Amino acid sequence: MKTASSFVMLLFTAGTVLAQVKQDPIQAADLKRDLYRMADDYFRGREAGTLDELKASVWLAEEARKAGLEPAGEDGTYFQFFPLIRERVSTRSTITIGSRSFVLWKDAIVYEPSFAAVHAPLVFVDDPATVTDAAVNGKVVALQFSDKGINDPRVHVPMRYGAIVISFWAKKLAAKGAKAIVFVSDDLADKVWARGSEYANRGSYQIEGSLFHRQLLNGIPIIWLKKEALDLVRTPNQQVDAQIFSENFTYPSVNVVAKVKGSDPKLANEYVLFSGHQDHDGVRNITPGKDSIFNGADDNATVSVALLAIGRAFHQKPGKRSALFVWHGAEERGLFGSTWFADHPLVPREAIVAVLNGDMIGNNAPDSAALLGVVPPHRSSADLVNIALRENEKGLRFKLDTAWDKASHPEGWYFRSDHFPYAKKNIPALFFSSLPHPLYHTPGDEAASINIEKLTKITRWMYATGFAVANAAQRPRLEPGFQLER
């Protein structure tokens, strides 16, 4: 039986907890709850252009509604749909070398969609750097994977190896007149062959106004075979017969858009845009018998749930300017949701005073983070940078990794998230991240791997930065002569 004094103490403790919650509206428990929901197998990895992405979008919209955020999408909804155009290699395609036929995606990868009819002799080259035009012109050129002569440091990262080697040599050999190019795995490429097959069989994606064009070659097939085919392609006097067909589809993808109206009658017509992407890689059978769902907890459920938390905070205490929240679709396909919104904004583009974007904010060292858009030429607004740095110094005190923000960084990380289309429109933009890690784009990127405390701290940093911008007397100024290097 509790005494009167213990009951009073219980009330005092409960009151203290409630006061703390009220003082800091962004709570780790809320973020953890939402993260485990969004990164659950139920959404099957939220692959863009699938029903799984649409299911996640509906869930986000409902959570935004429950948080008190107003719909800011089209026609009074939380949604802005856009057409996602997919081109993929058709299973009607056939590949024969000598007397052997190769089964698409099981024995052979056609690296990118094309239409081609190839009937030509095969020539194997040991050193593609020294082969002459006359030796390969009009022929199918075969070579084995190798990092020889490639200075790109990413070539030593297993998941990058296949793409780096292919992109390095494909254009060079095509320029010499090759009719098709056949890459044969070495030991390392064989280890990532299944991953390459799962990604290549999706094909390529585009929207109107795409920032990226993913095709390496135009009409010249690139074929990737397993290492066991090496003896076959080395055999002299082989003929290659290939019929490559492609097919097109259009799928819906969607941005989820919500807002909290500002408290100042005049400044409420300006917006601080909080940005993140909701999609990930879906279901990919890369390792048979093991987990095939890429749940993308860090990439990018962390930021998706952070935006919900920030939205709740603004609803509880609005800033003078309005807060706009955009959960972009199809980021993994090529920044398509953010490109679409930047091209078709649902508020006047000139009314967007700043974009605070996040991508992966829940992993790596607990005391470090990255803020991109700080180092020139990526710094679009010194005013905005100074606000973010000042908020970090107030108590979060993350050690900031600036290396990934440099124009010289080989990963080009600045250009690979959803602030980029806005920066291209000369809107001041920052990119919050805790950077890639070993679970990046693997089935291991699960909710249990996320550092909830770090996620909470970076969420608070994004919120504090945005709240300061929302209440500043002047909007952040664009840097004079701001121009990205690409």
TrEMBL record:
Cross-referenced InterPro entries: M28_fam (IPR045175), Peptidase_M28 (IPR007484)
Pfam family, one: Peptidase_M28
Signal peptide: 1-19
GO terms for biological process, alphabetical: proteolysis
A GO MF label: metalloexopeptidase activity
Peptidase M28 domain residues: 255-463
Domain of life: Bacteria
Keywords from the UniProt entry: Signal
Family matches, as SUPFAM superfamilies: Zn-dependent exopeptidases (SSF53187)
Gene3D superfamilies: 3.50.30.30, Zn peptidases
Coiled-coil parts of chain: none
Name this polypeptide is given: Peptidase family M28
